[in-house]
Amino acid sequence: MMLIDRLNERIMACKAPICVGLDPVLESIPAVYFADGASEVEAIYAFNQDVIDAVCDLVPAVKPQIAFYELFGSAGIACYERTIAYAKRKGLFVITDAKRNDIGNTAMAYAKAHLGEGSPLEVDFLTVSPFLGEESLVPFIDVCKAEDKGIFILVRTSNAGNRMVQDAQNANGCTVSETLAEYIRQQAGACLGESGYSAIGAVVGATYPQEAETLRKAMPASLFLVPGYGAQGGGAEDVVPCFNADGLGAVVNSSRGILYSYADKHCSREEYKTSVVAATKAMQQDIYGALRGSYPDIKY
Amino acid sequence: MMLIDRLNERIMACKAPICVGLDPVLESIPAVYFADGASEVEAIYAFNQDVIDAVCDLVPAVKPQIAFYELFGSAGIACYERTIAYAKRKGLFVITDAKRNDIGNTAMAYAKAHLGEGSPLEVDFLTVSPFLGEESLVPFIDVCKAEDKGIFILVRTSNAGNRMVQDAQNANGCTVSETLAEYIRQQAGACLGESGYSAIGAVVGATYPQEAETLRKAMPASLFLVPGYGAQGGGAEDVVPCFNADGLGAVVNSSRGILYSYADKHCSREEYKTSVVAATKAMQQDIYGALRGSYPDIKY
Prior knowledge:
The structure is a homodimer. Chain A is α/β, with parallel strands linked by helices.
């Protein structure tokens, strides 16, 4: 069974087209993780373990943001390696948010680093930036095809300032976002699973529901990774247009809204995990409820 | 003395507005570095040391491409840390080619990771991708201002396929590249050194000399990082328009043309270093000769 089909199966089993961001920010992590003289990266790893334990039966995937690990150099990347290994052991799919981009053998090095079999950083999905154009995406797509992996190409990001680049128009009148969507549609067939979905996906922000509807039609088979829910202002109604009528086709991310939902900085690890479970369940009910309300033909 | 002024001083002292790319590709590294059972990252570090020793008196800067280190996970990033430390000890400026981009506190994490004082990955300059728009560049510019560091924002990359994104036009008729150039011009004043140059710079490929001329006029104070010379097809005449008439304003990179210029895969380390010195000197003469030929008012 292909990666995309296994992910869709887990989404349906959990009734949760959701991933939880693993964005460790030292100032926001409860004090208990720094007890007993734990180093910064030790604290982050223990924190990540608790988040993973709390969510692994509730959602199909986690999304570490690699910048927060890179901040600690090689020790941070070692912590990241342990984190993704732990998430995989707990049955979670791992989506690395790295927005990598380059050309030629450099792009291939990034693709192999994050998606290549046996690489220390190997995960299931990677976010990719398209600033260097189509040819910069080819090495990533090639690795996806060869190794049954997935990518999410930035098409419409959740931030207001994206328009300077993403709304600019090509000679044929299509915006950069629309041009990328058409390119992804063309590529999606190559990595198509039995579920009818493709692991060549797109990042589409929850903050632009009208555009999400257009992009959904433009890339019917592609999986969308949807940032912007919760702390960034997107609600459940806003993410609904990112989905197809079967309730599939998108994975909505929440990071801060789940990780930092706890009430007391001096909570215990058990109390912290309880807050993560509660916030994740609330998000699941919010998203799933909106989907069921909008799509009578939902498959789960 | 500010970073940009110190760099310009070294460029003039070396008569070499040049940086050498540190892009270790295992298949291309001479066999001697793998002798005595050296691991892949040990081989890369020894290789990098020899390149650095060979070029440190000839050029002002090296440019490691971080993808080739990320490929080996945390061990690769540890090798990268040792490499940048060694380059700094040898008096070289370090430009990290990472093309990082994100928004908010994630962008800030990348900026602090690569440019923050005391970070394990701290270097002098970082390449930054602008796909998420102006607001995604602000955290990097803020760190440059606060810590006297520099960035090169991708404006016109050296690859043919860049046009899908970089040639798209905004509502005012300006292309994405032109819009970014205007933004950089506005920001450059904040990080201006006594030499009249700014550490808020741009990546402008050597493969588009006509556009380089236009972009040079649009961003008169910004330092350009110029890829595409040598192996990618750009010649010395093509990079001349990236410079101002004083012979400053650009740093031309060569990676493969220098690192893999050796004739015999089974050369000794001394023979390898000799080939690196010869290729670097040839590039210096090529670029410096073209600049002297074009700019009678060159300052060095």
